[in-house]
Amino acid sequence: MELENKTIIVTGANSGIGAAAARLFAAEGANVVLGARRAAPLETVADAIVQAGGRAVCLAGDVTDEAYAAKLVDLAERAFGGLDGAFNNAGVVGAMQPVPDMAIDNWTDVIAVNLTGAFLAAKAQIPAMQARGQGSIVFTSSFVGFSNGGMPGMGAYAASKAGLVGFAQSLASDHAAEGIRVNTLLPGGTITPMGGENDPAALAFIAGLHPMKRMAAPIEIAQAALFLLSDRSSFMTGSPMIADGGVSVRLL
Ligand code: NAP
């Protein structure tokens, strides 16, 4: 049990990487507090964890809403007595277009969810972790925020995901002495709705960018997140940890 009795917020928990992480963390002994906008699939994930003998609660909302970030922390404290970790994983890819064709609204929306959402999450979570005297925060970045890897039309998404790396490093520096670790996880292409799971041509294209010639299953990324949230990574903070099937070192 890598997360025995730790209480962990997981956002983006009704789908893809976040749902796999919610199930894995609960199976590893965590109390999980799950968030995403669509309530029905979120409740389905939480119910399945409870049916399997785990401990899960959920609250639907939007990570761009400051009040929602605070409500998730309140829920963790009310349901389980405190907060030990957060996998701030909710994200959107937005329109994939060259920047000259991109509407400002697309830029603003992608930055709001992926980067401002992370700011609001950390702002709410860090005081709860300070009260606990420890904590681990993980933000889901992307290989696209580090190496691009050959993905077209990623201007807004790449900026948001690269921004997370610097944001996490600043938090890591500010809060390390308080026992709070902050890292980013940079997945490669992963078979989820965002990763094009219902689009065979997209899956084949993305798989082909990776030296492994395949995409990740969501559980493979969840396992990397588990490592960063657990005490196994006790000397890691400010790290952009890459789990990308080698896409960032591919030869063009
Ligand atoms: P996904 O299955 O589409 O999941 C995205 C999750 O984010 C959903 O649970 C979605 O739920 C939630 N979400 C989106 N906007 C939200 C908002 N404004 N407020 C609250 N929740 C919101 O995609 P995924 O691949 O698992 O993505 C998870 C993370 O991995 C993202 O940050 C993504 O950028 C990153 N990533 C993905 C890949 C890939 O190839 N799949 C690669 C690298 C990084 P609702 O729509 O119900 O809100």
Give a topology summary.
Layout: E1 7-11, H1 16-27, E2 31-36, H2 39-51, E3 55-60, H3 66-80, E4 85-88, H4 104-132, E5 135-140, H5 155-175, E6 180-187, H6 200-209, H7 218-229, E7 240-243
Parallel strand pairs: 1-2, 1-4, 2-3, 4-5, 5-6, 6-7
Helix pairs in contact: 1-2, 1-7, 3-4, 4-5
The structure holds NADP nicotinamide-adenine-dinucleotide phosphate.
NADP nicotinamide-adenine-dinucleotide phosphate is lined by residues 11-12, 14-18, 36-38, 62-64, 89-92, 113, 140, 142, 187, 189-190, 192-195.
How would you sum up this structure, described in words?
- The protein is an alpha/beta fold and 252 residues long.
- It has one domain: NAD(P)-binding Rossmann-like Domain (Rossmann fold, 3-Layer(aba) Sandwich).
- Strands 3-2-1-4-5-6-7 form a seven-stranded parallel sheet, with helices on both faces.
- Helix 4 links the parallel strand 4 and strand 5.
- The longest helix is centred in the middle third of the chain and has 29 residues.
- 48% of the residues are buried.
- The model has no long low-confidence stretch (mean pLDDT 97).
- NADP nicotinamide-adenine-dinucleotide phosphate binds next to helix 1.
- The site of NADP nicotinamide-adenine-dinucleotide phosphate (NAP) has 27 residues, from helix 1.
